[in-house]
Amino acid sequence: MYKSITLCILLAFSSAAFSQVNIIPKPKETILPDVSGSFSITAQTKFVLKDPSLQPSVNFFNDYLFKIYGFRLKSAKVATKNTIVLDRNKEADTLQGSYTLNVKASGIKIVSHSRQGVFYGIQSLLQLLPTSKSAKLDIPWVSIKDEPRFAYRGMHLDVGRHFFTVSEVKKYIDYLALHKMNYFHWHLTEDQGWRIEIKKYPRLTSVGGFRNGTITGHAPGTGNDQTPTGGFYTQEEVKDIVAYAARRYITTIPEIEMPGHASAAIAAYPELSCFPEESTYIKPGVVWAGSTSGKQVQQTFGVFTDVFAPTEKTFAFLQDVLDEVLPLFPSKFIHIGGDESPKDNWKRSEFCQQLIKEKGLKDEHGLQSYFIQRMEKYINSKGKQIIGWDEILEGGLAPNATVMSWRGEVGGIEAAKQKHNVIMTPSTYVYFDYAQSKPEDSLTIGGYLPVQTVYGYDPIPKELAVDEQKYVLGGQANLWTEYITNMPKLEYMIFPRMSALSEVLWSPKEGRSWTEFEPRLKQQVQRYDLWKVNYSKAYLLPVVPVPTKTN
Ligand code: ACM
Fold first, then answer.
1. Does residue 259 have a cis peptide bond before it, meaning omega lies within 30 degrees of 0?
2. Which stretches of the chain score pLDDT less than 70?
3. Alpha-carbon gap, residue 353 to 363, rounded angstroms
């Protein structure tokens, strides 16, 4: 009897401690000691770095601590009972990110084979901190052994439809870091704006970086705000952002779209179109700001027929652009788009029809495949690999391409079966521009994607045999910004869905359930409050059933 009361008290203590261990994404293994206790981080606590290359982890921790709790930790040479030791071991780390985190009376220790593993240990430690401000931060004794499930854990950001400043992009990258994401897919060129400085073609940004107005309401629009808008990143700013992400162990992948979504580039250089003399087509009913003659940067949203002409002039232009873009991004991947490129202009262009004949291509899809393969060859010759949206499967896949599957998982499955790498981004599970509630509570592109659906996603489709599954590198959520015009709205669209996605991409699949996740999400929401982010509370609403579909 006495023994069982003691056991009950011990269990009660350890479950109280466990309730403080609410890490998202959930670690692979969390062990609480038989006897619970806590370690207090105060301004006297010091870091001990066994390897100076771990300094970015200390900097991130200290910046966070200072911003939220108002103090920073100094460093010391020798471990004591009041130190946080960061160390590296020699164990193999195939997924580049495994780590151990131990919090004991004798101190805190994070050990990993890799620098990013230590950084992920730091992210877990940040989530052990209390969610109320204090000068003494008690964290429970705990032993964590963790590693990511997928090597590719990404978030995309479209800065074409709406421009986000350097400091906003950095804030976004910080959110990725806090969720142990490791790829930032930066969608830099669009019909509504070209956002990266190219020195050889200054009109890309001076003309293509700006538009005279933007539609109001859903595309094609009910009006136009008649307000000039735009912006672009200089190459120096791009380097700064790429380095900022790298200090968070995040690789930035630029996307330079081709052959579609090219209206802004064509507005700058009309000769890139099959029909340079034709004015930009404006659908009847679209309310326009400023001139409607000549080539214009788009002011409404959708898919447009004025795409790049597959001429030698265009190939030379795109190669010149890439010659300036590639050196800015150490990433081995470069995204070349390939999606939503209507064939209307290619069909009515004598030049294109002649080219199809000359090259012995089947049709315009064959021509798109020729276009992409030619660009792939160039990019491969520079030591880089291409990623393309799943349309690049049509007409034949470029030999070394990685496919980003967005129209459901079908393209990803097909690519994996062809032994090509795949990144899963199916719109029904990870399009964070979709509404989180039904009916939508603010203007969105449409769709319905509650956080529970994101949490229920598994990037490995059941259609893949065991030996094909290895081609799925991981997954990514996409944030298209037609209806996301500012940072608070951006935060509203990603939180809490990004927290759910981080667990899908990092944590073991076994044992994952919404009922287990939901209480941890409630703790996470307290962190959102600490971070002062604007998040959706739609997770508290019942999920509205929708017919299942794959696209
Ligand atoms: C896409 O959503 N058009 C890739």
1. yes
2. 1-19, 92-94, 547-551
3. 8
Q: Is 447 touching ligand 1 by the criterion CB < 6 Å?
A: no
Distance CA 269, CA 264 (A): 9
Residue among 367, 360, 362 at smallest CA distance from 344: 367
Structure tokens at 318: 């795109």
pTM: 0.95
Question: In angstroms, what is the span from residue 339 Cα to ligand 1's centroid?
Answer: 6
pLDDT of amino acid 548: 57
Give the closest residue (by CA) to ligand 1 atom 2. 406
Domains of the chain (ranges plus CATH)?
2-146 (3.30.379.10), 152-189+242-258+309-540 (3.20.20.80)
Contact by Cβ (8 Å): 40, 84? no
Give the burial class of 92: count Cβ atoms within 10 A of its Cβ; 0-12 exposed, 13-18 middle, 19 or more buried: exposed
Let me know how long the chain is.
551
d(CA 149, CA 76): 34
DSSP conformation letters of 32-56: --SS--EEEE-TT-EEEESSGGGHH
Unique residue bearing structure tokens 């070209």: 194
For residue 92, what pLDDT is reported? 66
- Please give the pLDDT value at position 546: 73
| CA-closest candidate to residue 211, choices 196, 225, 197 | 225
Q: What is the 335 CA–ligand 1 centroid distance (Å)?
A: 12
By most ligand atoms within 8 Å of CB, the mutation choice from 480, 482, 484, 551 for ligand 1 is 480
CA 316 to ligand 1 center in whole angstroms: 26
Quote the pLDDT of residue 291. 97
Distances in Å between the Cα of 517 and the Cα atoms of 180, 244, 507, 521 are: 17, 31, 12, 6
